[in-house]
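2024-03-11 09:14:02 DEBUG pipeline.ingest accepted 1 chain
2024-03-11 09:14:02 DEBUG pipeline.ingest length=402
2024-03-11 09:14:03 DEBUG pipeline.predict start
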Amino acid sequence: MLLTVLMSQSIGVGPSSWSYQIVLLSASALSDDGERFLIGSENGEYIVLDRYGNMVLNGNFERTIHAVDIAENRNMIFGTEDSVFLLDEQGKILSSVYPTEPVLYVSMAKNGLYAVAGTQRKIFLMSTRELIWESLIIPEDSTETYISRVAISASGSAVAAAAQKSVFLFGSASSTYKAKMNFDSAVTSLIFLPDGNDIVIGTKEGTLCIYDIEGNQRFSYSLEGSINSIAVNSGQILVGTSRGEIALFEQNENILLKKVTEGSMDVCDISDDGKYVVILDSEGYVSSFNIETEKGWSFFIRDPISVELSKDGKYVGITRKAGIYFINNWESTFESTEYFPYASRGQFSLENDLCKVWSYPSKVNCFDYGDVNGDGQNEVVFGSGTDLTVLDHKGELLWKKS
């Protein structure tokens, strides 16, 4: 793998945003906390980068890597040309399977103890110690239907696989599926809700469904266009469609439908608190914004593949055919301020829409912010020369001492 640093730019007071050119890049995954960016390549090499762009691990399976995923505990799964490998964060192989055909789809349980992998015909449930079971979903003589994606619940207790217009649901104890759901069009998206009790399914004709892990339908909704991407948190479901719209579903069934791009919405992701959304459209634009304020950034990249958002909305990982981008979305500074959502050295507040709240003329050598007098409001404390000055939250002078 040829790894070439293209850019390293410091943003605000936080960690750097950076990018790498990577020849033969084939798969990538960003950890939920944004602290690890896992990259796989066509020649079998893999690397793990931290949020500063430093390489913390690398290795070589000497066979094409088709798919990767990384869990909360930083265990990793690799689907290669003829095998599956489950590794810990130090690169030690915990378990492996050799199905002798390309492993195209993988998914790690959030706890990192279980994972599912899929070829075009079979799926494999693995633990960190062994292969638990394998299941032949598509008969060997079938030439028209193939597995197209796999998913696993956060605890590893439920597994799903999509094949053309069907979804198969499994429990962890048996390789025989306990439910099969059929649809009128191809299944395009498949993801478990964080509690692991329900699975969300999207189709090419725009049908969004929620089923429990026994195969009982709990919710159904029709959108215009194909559902290209689904992202979830504990209370919301974000859907991206081919019409350039995002639909946000909440537990109380409130629905926000908003057109955000003229192209097709290829990939979307959402933070755990529901404030931050990142999208990738068919025109090659990656955009990040705050749902509450609609502020954020957007830029064009050539040959994009995917985009992921850390669960706190702070980091964005972007993959393209020849490289990756890692963006520090915002920095939390003082208790009373919001975030820095712009990829620049400027420090802006989402609350005041870039408008000046107040100013105080002085030369400032050092600065801090906090509740000085116990009134429940944050005061500004700064030094200028031999003077120490305290202002209240409205910019009024409280006291000044030399």
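2024-03-11 09:14:41 DEBUG pipeline.report The mean pLDDT is 86.
2024-03-11 09:14:41 DEBUG pipeline.predict end
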